[in-house]
Amino acid sequence: MIKRAFDIMSALIALVVLLPLLFIIAFVVWKETKGGAFFRQTRIGKDGKSFDLLKFRSMRSDASGPLITVGDNDQRITRSGHWLRRTKLDELPQLWNVLVGEMSIVGPRPEVAKYVALYDQKMLEALKVKPGLTDPASIDAFDEGAELESVDDPEAHYCKVILPRKVLAQVAYANRSNLFTDGRVIARTLLRILKR
After folding, report:
1. DSSP string, 14-36
2. H or E element at residue 156
3. Which domain holds residue 102?
4. What is the pLDDT of residue 129?
5. Which of 11, 44, 86, 188 could form a disulfide with 99 if both were Cys (CB 3.0 to 4.6 A apart)?
6. How far apart (Å, rounded) are the C-alpha atoms in residues 148 and 59?
7. How many CB atoms sit inside 10 A of residue 153's CB?
C-alpha cells in the first residue's frame, strides 16, 4: 500500500514537472518518424498478465528484426532515437504505466512474451512482483548493447547469458527490497543517466 502510494505520488510529480520536456520530445519524434511519437509493445507483468508498455518511438516505424537492440550501430534506430536511448528518455512515457498501476517505479524490467517463455522456475519468481522503470539489474545492464555487439549471435547470447543473469538478479532484489533500497536504486539510476 505504501509502495503504491509512493508510485502514484512520484509518477504524478514527475509527469507534471517533465510535461514541457515530454511535449518537446514527442514533437521531435513525431516530426522525424512515421507512426506517431509513441511506441507500444506488449510486455508481461505481475502474475504473467500482459500490458502495453509505452515508450517514445526510437526506431523507424517500418523496422523489423530481432526484439533486442544490438548497440548504437543498429540501423533501425532513428537519429533522435540514439539520443533518447542513451539518456533513457525514451522510457519516460512509462510513468503513465506506473500511474495506472501496471508498473512500479522500482521493480524488474518487464520482458516480452518470447523471452518470458524461456524463464525457468526460479526466474518466474520475477513475475510475482510488479515490473518497474528501473532496478539494480537494469542499472548494471546500461551498456548491454555494447556486450551484444561484441558477439557473433546477439540474440542467442541474450537468451543464454544476459537474460538469466539479469532476471535472477531481479529476483534476488525483489526478495529483499523495501522503500529505502528502492530509494537507493532511484538515486543510482539518476546518477547513471547523468553520467551518460
Report:
1. HHHHHHHHHHHHHHHHHHHSSS-
2. helix 154-157
3. 2-195
4. 93
5. 11
6. 18
7. 10
Q: CA distances (Å), 126 to each of 175, 181, 194, in order?
A: 9, 17, 28
Please tell me the distance from the alpha carbon of residue 122 to that of residue 24, in angstroms, as a whole number: 42
User: Strands 132-134 and 104-106, how do they pair?
Assistant: parallel
Whole-angstrom CA distances from 36 to 40, 61, 79, 147, 155 are 11, 8, 15, 30, 28
Show the cell assigned to 72: 548504437
Q: How many domains does the chain have?
A: 1
**Per-residue confidence of the chain (196 residues) as pLDDT tens digits?**
889 999 999 999 999 999 999 999 999 999 888 888 999 999 999 999 999 999 999 888 777 767 777 766 777 888 888 889 888 899 999 999 999 999 999 999 999 999 999 999 999 999 999 999 999 988 887 777 778 888 888 889 999 999 999 999 999 998 888 888 999 999 998 888 887 6
Q: Residues 56, 90: contact at Cβ < 8 Å?
A: yes
Q: How many CB atoms lie within 10 A of CB 184?
A: 13
What is the Cα–Cα distance from 85 to 192, expressed in whole angstroms? 13
For residue 115, which of 24, 43, 35 has the smallest C-alpha distance? 43
Per-residue cell: 4: 503504491
In this structure, how many other beta carbons lie within 10 angstroms of the beta carbon of residue 62?
9
Residue 179's Cβ-count burial label (10 Å; 0-12, 13-18, 19+) is exposed
